[in-house]
Amino acid sequence: MAQGNVDSAKDLAAKSEHQDRLSEFDEEVDTVDPKKIKDIKKKIDLRICLVLGVLYTASLIDRVNLPVKCVSRIATSSLCYRTLNFLISYVAGMGDPEKGLDLKGNAYTLLILVFFPFYISFQPPMTAIARKVRARRFLGFIVTAWGLVMVGHGLVKSWHAMLALRCLLGIFEAGFFSSCAYLLSTWYVRAEVAKRNAAFYLLGSLIAGFGGILAYGLSKMDGVGGHAGWRWIFLMEGIITVVFGIVAYFLIVDFPEDAHKSWKFLKDDEIKIVIDRINRDRMDVETPPFKLGLYLKNALDWKIWFFAANFGLTSVVTYAAAYFLPIVLRQGLGFSEAAAQCLSTPCYVFASILGLIQSVISDRIGLRTPFLLFNCVIEVIGVVVLGYAKQSGVRYFGAFLIIGGANSNIPLSLTYQANNIRGVWRRAFCSATIVGAGGIGGIIGSLTFRSQDAPQYR
């Protein structure tokens, strides 16, 4: 009983402190001036969507659209989208007994797979920590931390040491995407979220589509400074990520009620407008005290697992397409290595355009499901066309439909759950859960194109 009284006192104190912070913004404000609201949203877009999109690019830049020259030599590997830097590094000599880490037996597979259990299982605590310590501190720290871990990848002398670094990488990256999606959902009313999610995800993915070329170029620094080419991939990309993480600390904004601490990018009256709009829309600006039991109790809500399945199954397609499309274009459609690599990029350009258009219309009419279902239909059509059409040009058109539909559904899935979840901690738990399901989707997606099905992959 005494302990219960102490806990209650702590909860009341925490709630009182939070209400005191919000009381600063309680006075009447003008939330109907369209021009003023538009100006505020532009500021938020620059400091959230743009900065998070750049950071997301940094997290993907060495993992997407692997050059076909490398892919064709390891086309039978059952590995996935988040490990493509490893694939280039492996081809560049990481597994070599003399220049590399002498990867024997299942060492390479272990290095790849150990990332995922940590990435998936650390999703729920990471979003809760982000809420407690504030987004700017949290995201700045984890981006810098995983950049240092990537630098460590380029300095290790044995694969056992790299195994430990892979575990750390999974932990740090676990907090990134879910926290970004969560942060975005807290700053906008429900009718404004889709196009922001699309800008953050699709533009980041589009720019990152050229990351494989960067990694391949870095591998050609073999011998510079006495380091093998595969080490330069990790060293340079790690250093770039560290720089991004440090800059991010000064640019990322916190949650709305803490925005006045984020280097004053908004005036007090502008913060009041943001908070008032969110409260009018969904009444969940106020953050109740964190309780682990209540936080985990959200797992009993079947709707959260529905949202997770929705996002996870979408991720199966995006991961499979991102990893295997160059292989299919090279082996199945008969394009040259250079052409297969170049022809992958237009598919992602189309996906970005399609996703942004759909998100704008979706926000305008206030509906998500019709667009999700439409994209699923064109994905199915794309799979049939890519798999069974006769002419290479027609089959290539099927790739546009697959990647366009799947990648457009990622921001829509994020928005779908964000629009249907209320409550600070429930929203945090749901964001973590769906991104964790996306990691599982990545593992499944890596197994869809089997080596025995080459070259047509019917």
TrEMBL record:
Residues 51-458 form the Major facilitator superfamily (MFS) profile domain. GO terms for molecular function: transmembrane transporter activity. GO terms for cellular component: membrane. The keyword Transmembrane helix applies. The chain crosses the membrane at residues 44-61, 107-126, 138-156, 168-189, 198-218, 230-252, 304-326, 338-357, 369-389, 395-416, 428-449. It is found in: Membrane. It is a multi-pass membrane protein. It comes from the Eukaryota. Its main location: membrane. Residues 1-20 are annotated as: Disordered. PROSITE patterns: MFS. Keywords: Membrane, Transmembrane, Transmembrane helix, Transport. Residues 8-20 have a biased composition (Basic and acidic residues). PANTHER family: MAJOR FACILITATOR SUPERFAMILY (MFS) PROFILE DOMAIN-CONTAINING PROTEIN-RELATED, PERMEASE-RELATED. This is Major facilitator superfamily (MFS) profile domain-containing protein. It comes from Knufia peltigerae.
